[in-house]
Amino acid sequence: MSVEQTLTSQERLAELDLQQLRQLVGLVEYDAEGDPFPVTGWDAVVWAVGNATQAASFFQAVFGMELVAYSGPETGNRDHHAFVLRSGAIRFVLKGGVDPDSPLLDHHRRHGDGVIDIALEVPDVDKCIEHARAQGATVVEEPHDVTDEHGTIRTGAIATYGETRHTLVDRSRYTGPYLPGYVARSSGHVKPDGAPKRLFQALDHVVGNVELGHMDEWVDFYNRVMGFTNMAEFIGDDIATEYSALMSKVVASGNHRVKFPLNEPAVGKKRSQIDEYLDFYRGPGAQHLALATNDIIRTVDVLRSRGVEFLATPDSYYTDPELRARIGHVRVPIEELASRGILVDRDEDGYLLQIFTKPIGDRPTVFFEFIERHGSLGFGKGNFQALFEAIEREQAKRGNF
Ligand SMILES: [Fe+2]
């Protein structure tokens, strides 16, 4: 495969190259030959939100994303509004019901703002669906062509945890702004003077929360149905025993572009953050999206100045001699991290910097992580303890602890 072929259409549009992606999201070489379910990369994260018109404005004004396409009543779609936003290789599609009978509104009533579809770009939709079906997956959309004046998309979809799905998209014969039915659209939003071109470049991972006792089932689903492999990071219930606990395993596509940590609650002294999520999302769903940045300091400063709230990190995280020794030498003085609450994790391959926002909707469910990788292919396992303390202080404030 040529380099050109191994980049997704969004990555090419964002002018990212493989070297940058190796740094940003830990991309690895792999041989697609023999992969029963080859995945090129992320296609889009599709959200159901209570007010897509305002959410689109939020993601532009605050997260610095760019409006690129639209579907709605003006384009013949009387059911809902859909705004397609871009930052680097990341594409979000925000959907909100217009017709009071829209199924999106039923979904939103049950789950609140959340991810309904983690769509993946694949070279061969039929091959993937065929394999998924043979492995017992639920096919929610048979492979079919959708065509407009920009060409043809081949697409199909399978169900994953909860009411979440993976739509598979082959856009090799398509040049339009998103999908047939969408029109190119930009907005009058003007970036403030001195604002960075973009605050994040690529999607690193999407975490799924599943019910107690079901994590291994979903690990097996991704192994069997989608040919994903297990990554080393494993968090057992031995971690954070003083606090509510979780268990986590990570599966990844062959090239590691698509990484899915899967969490289940573990029995702790108090209700865990995963239990809280499952209660308020009314079942399994996407918990957080990690957005890769090459300058987390600047990203956090800009977002905070625009009102984004991050989880606070206890001072002891930076002053405790043991923790400080673990942090070691990173690209900025530790005070720069401490003043912003940015966490550090380290493994044999390098380190990573990360920070988590508070939930972005009304329910204590979905939130974002910002991550800057320096060689480490991990997910911040070493930070769970510090993180749990911070999350649980927030949970206690909401009376759910
Ligand atoms: Fe994460």
Notable characteristics:
13 helices, nine-stranded mixed beta sheet, 2 domains, 401 residues, 2,3-Dihydroxybiphenyl 1,2-Dioxygenase, domain 1, 26% helix, alpha+beta, binds fe (ii) ion
**Number of separate helices:** 13
Instruction: Supply Rg.
Output: 20 Å
- Element order: H for helix, E for strand: HHHEHEEEHEHEEEEEHEEEHEHHHHEEEH
Spatial strand sequence of the major β-sheet = 6-7-8-5-1-4-3-2-9
Q: State the shape.
A: globular
Quaternary arrangement of the chains shown?
single chain
Describe the SSE topology.
Layout: H1 3-6, H2 9-13, H3 18-25, E1 41-48, H4 52-61, E2 66-71, E3 80-87, E4 90-97, H5 103-111, E5 114-121, H6 125-134, E6 139-148, E7 151-159, E8 165-170, E9 183-184, E10 202-209, H7 215-224, E11 229-235, E12 245-252, E13 259-266, H8 273-281, E14 285-292, H9 296-305, H10 316-319, H11 321-327, H12 334-338, E15 343-347, E16 350-356, E17 367-374, H13 384-397
Parallel strand pairs: 1-4, 5-8, 10-13, 14-17
Antiparallel strand pairs: 1-5, 2-3, 2-9, 3-4, 6-7, 7-8, 10-14, 11-12, 12-13, 15-16, 16-17
Bound molecules: fe (ii) ion.
Structure, explained:
- The protein has 401 residues and is an alpha+beta fold.
- The protein folds into 2 domains: 3-184, 2,3-Dihydroxybiphenyl 1,2-Dioxygenase, domain 1, CATH 3.10.180.10; 202-398, 2,3-Dihydroxybiphenyl 1,2-Dioxygenase, domain 1 (Roll).
- Helix content is 26%, strand content 31%.
- The chain contains 13 helices and 17 strands.
- The chain has a 9-stranded mixed β-sheet with strand order 6-7-8-5-1-4-3-2-9. Strands 11-12-13-10-14-17-16-15 form an 8-stranded mixed β-sheet.
- Strand 3 (80-87) and strand 4 (90-97) form a beta hairpin.
- The chain is globular, with a radius of gyration of 20 Å.
- The site of fe (ii) ion has 6 residues, from strand 10 and strand 14.
